[in-house]
Amino acid sequence: MRGGGGRKGVVLAAWIVGVLVPAAAAAQVLEINSGGGVTVYDGPAVYTAQGVVSIQAARSQPRRRAARASPDLDAAARDARLSAALVEAVAWQESHMRAGLVSRAGAVGEMQLMPSTAKALGVDPRVTRQNYAGGAAYLRSLLKRYDGDLIKTLAAYNAGPEAVDRYGGMPPFKETQDYVAAILEHLSQQALADDGLETIR
């Protein structure tokens, strides 16, 4: 990290993502809800005021509990009312979930909290449980700041909210653009693997 949630049930962002599956090429529609949970639609779908609606018969797959890297991550996600998948995707992109990692900029731990951010959140970033808790709480605060816009939230987590505010959205920084794209790809791959995410085919 170089630098809230919208209304319940409101879609944060719904993006058509072209995903190349080894067996076949298919266009995937991802719907990301207010807690960062992902629903994947294979095939035609339309956007409505209620969210994404498949225009072919939908079949819900059984939901399976994902094996998370740490119960601390799960607890942090639950306390912040976020999906564990979202917190995990950010932690993986930030540090590959390495405890104690310190970046050249001084960001610390799994969620790469800057010392000033950690202090404002009242957490010790060197302690895994607190690092995840602080990172998840910061993600929630950014979601609230950007009215549930996941793209702005992720961009702000990387580049800082000042940059997002200055440019009115995604800053023109390749690092930040790649960062956001990588997290969305991580979420889509989790969903395609049915790794604890709801999938509709």
How does the helix and strand content classify structurally? alpha+beta
Strand order in the largest sheet: 1-2-3-6
> Shape from CA axes?
globular
- Main beta-sheet annotation: 4 strands, mixed
Share in helix: 40-55%
The first-level CATH class of the largest domain is given as Mainly Alpha
Percent in strands: 15-25%
Number of helices: 7
CATH topology name of the largest domain, in short, is: Lysozyme
Radius of gyration: 17 Å
If classified by CATH, what would the architecture of the largest domain be?
Orthogonal Bundle
pLDDT < 50 runs, ≥5 residues = 4-27, 54-67, 194-201
C-alpha termini separation: 35 Å
Order of H and E elements = EEEEEHHHHHHHE
Beta strands, count: 6
Overall pLDDT score = 76
Number of domains: 2
Task: Describe the fold and architecture.
By secondary structure, the chain is of the alpha+beta class. The protein has 2 domains: 13-64 and 191-200, no CATH class; 71-187, Lysozyme. Helices cover 41% and strands 16% of the residues. It is built from 7 helices and 6 strands, in the order βββββαααααααβ. Strands 1-2-3-6 form a 4-stranded mixed β-sheet, covered by helices on one side. Strands 4-5 form a two-stranded antiparallel sheet. The longest helix is centred in the last third of the chain and has 19 residues, at 174-192. The termini are far apart.
